[in-house]
Amino acid sequence: MSDLIDILDKNKVPKHVAVIMDGNGRWAKERGQNRLEGHAMGVDSVRATLKAARELGVSYLTLYAFSTENWSRPKEEVDGLMDLLVHSITNELDELNENGVRLTAIGDIDGLPEKCSLSLKNAIKDTAKNKQITLVLALNYSSKWEITKAIQEISNDVSNNKLLASEITDSLVNSYLSTKEIPDPELLIRTSGEHRISNFLLWQIAYTEFYFTDVHWPDFRRDDFLEAILDYQKRERRFGKVSEQLITDK
Ligand code: FPP
Predict the structure, then answer these.
(1) Which atom of ligand 1 lies at the shortest distance from residue 89's CA?
(2) Looking at ligand 1, which atom is closest to the CA of residue 26?
(3) Rounded distance, CA 233 to CA 214, Å?
(4) Which domains does the chain have, with CATH numbers?
């Protein structure tokens, strides 16, 4: 059987792919298992997706690992997820370094349990010089939180005469977001059949292509990722223009 990667256009690989990893709970329920077992299996999917993204030459992979809304889940699940994160980050650190993966995070990292924020900050520091791919973990993240914080900071800077209201542009707003050093994603994947954005990167996805799959996150593997890229490559991205203009722009 041919490898999907061979039919992909290497000149049309998205620079940044973002993923809403969904369906861990349903995957576990279908097997009569605890939700946490679904999350634990989801770590294998993270590994497979990161590997495929690296192999393909994607520069940024952002994963929605824990939203600000996820705190309202049962305490046992929240605690289990935090333990899983600490455990995964610590365990994978050598592998990240061996594969040139730079780890970074977006979200309210200081609002995470200390053991989690410390291991995360340590891994971010330890992988800072890696250049193959950047893995962005969205943790204790929500887009409305991020945009609200940016508005507060911009307002403060205007009040303190560091900034004029007339200087507030699209790119200035960008520079107050936690993604300021990350290009906007060209592709957003959501697994497990839901067609929602769930408070994720609302500002950054203005021109992003969406790809939805019914596959639950713990079953998501290299071929599922490559299928999403193939689907993306078939689309025409017009950025508000008409097709004919795209031909003359080339
Ligand atoms: C959504 O499934 C999944 C999450 C909220 C957590 C995702 C976290 C992991 C896969 C572990 C991440 C680990 C690393 C190292 C990044 P759900 O629980 O909402 O599933 P459901 O909709 O079927 O209930």
Answers:
(1) 15
(2) 23
(3) 20
(4) 14-148+183-249 (3.40.1180.10)
